[in-house]
Specification:
β4, α8 and β5 form a beta-alpha-beta unit. This protein has two domains: 169 residues, Methioning gamme-lyase, C-terminal domain (Aspartate Aminotransferase, domain 1), CATH 3.90.1150.60; 227 residues, Aspartate Aminotransferase, domain 2 (3-Layer(aba) Sandwich). α3 packs antiparallel against α10, α10 crosses α12 and α11 crosses α12. The chain is α/β, with parallel strands linked by helices. Strands 1-7-6-5-4-2-3 form a seven-stranded mixed β-sheet, sandwiched between helices. The structure holds pyridoxal-5'-phosphate.
Amino acid sequence: METMESVYRSLGISSEVLDYGQRIESELKERFEAIDATAEYNQLKVIGAMQKCKVSAECFNASSGYGYNDLGRDKLEEVYAAAFHTEAALVRPQITCGTHALALALMSNLRPGDELLSISGKPYDTLEEVIGIRPSKGSLAEYGITYRQVDLLADGSFDLEGIRQAVTPATKLVAIQRSKGYQTRPTLSVEKIGEAIAFVKGIRPDIICMVDNCYGEFVERTEPSDVGADMVVGSLIKNPGGGLAPIGGYIAGTEECIENAAYRLTSPGLGREVGASLGVMQSFYQGFFLAPTVTAGALKGAVFAANVFERLGFPVVPDGSESRHDIIQAVTFGSPEGVVAFCEGIQAAAPVDSYVTPEPWAMPGYDSEVIMAAGAFVQGSSIELSADGPIKPPYAVYFQGGLTWYHAKLGILKALQKLIDAGIAKLP
Ligand SMILES: *Cc1c(COP(=O)(O)O)cnc(C)c1O
């Protein structure tokens, strides 16, 4: 039998890189145990929700056409609502991605003359066009919905005084983005999000609080919906799809918010009653069942990457020891070559498309060229091991995912190997 070392070597990892990685891994035992305990807690939460909703084998049947009386679809939405502790949920393959889910939540709950207020600073790049910060056809701005933004303070906390001043009688909905996205600010903990929501509700309790929950699901034991959010919104090709959902998005929240979203997704008068599930239900259920464990694997990869690169002198956000609130790891290389070498390593470690070389391109929705590495079973899935790097200063790579910890580890070692081979990184 081959040794572990020789198996790694056959995949292009030198003994020096492997040794360095093993040393770091051995120092992370306690962190990994805490991640496993959170996964255990969330696994029980999901199983409990499925049992409470009496999920049965019939739920996996496909519907077509209008999709009337689709038991699996309706029950899955009950399961999400039970797991997120909300009144209702909309979980559909017709929600094409995270941006669509967020646009839907906003457009369905805002009316002309209303104002949207972001209290976590600049939103995720693709939302700039949804809101109309960058002019775009069909934006909220075109419908007479105004926008205001309060930036986070320099230490990453909410600017409460700024929020108080920004709330006007027109403020209808407050948006909070849990994850840092393509920024190097800290990700917000559920606890801090809860404090901000309480503050907003203290100003005016009828303001709808929406949280962009992308990449945050199951990282902690609670979700923003446990601390007062009226809507939590995310993508099924990230954490909650568990790597199995081939498409989809979700919104979980109050009955009223979800009803509004459903009438906008399909049609006024039709709402949740239509929308065929086309045979994806088993993967939605099974993916949600696996999501806590899959998220834990991705989280271990992020913590490992932070420690691997921090010790080589590259700035990392979050740092190697701080607490985690999403699965994204930012590593700053300071040069386009570093970003490219890292992404080449992630790509070369993939089970699918490992032989292709990723290159920067002008991706729709982004304001600079972006290089993306992904060898995924589901196209564009970022719960699978993947990395994105906008080709602009500070030349940071945003790395996330890994359906298993072992794959995440291989990807990070392979990225390190590429950086060493290119002379960009040096082992201590
Ligand atoms: C991924 C992401 C989105 C958008 O999701 P897509 O599925 O890429 O459209 C929005 N907000 C945050 C914080 C994200 O991470």
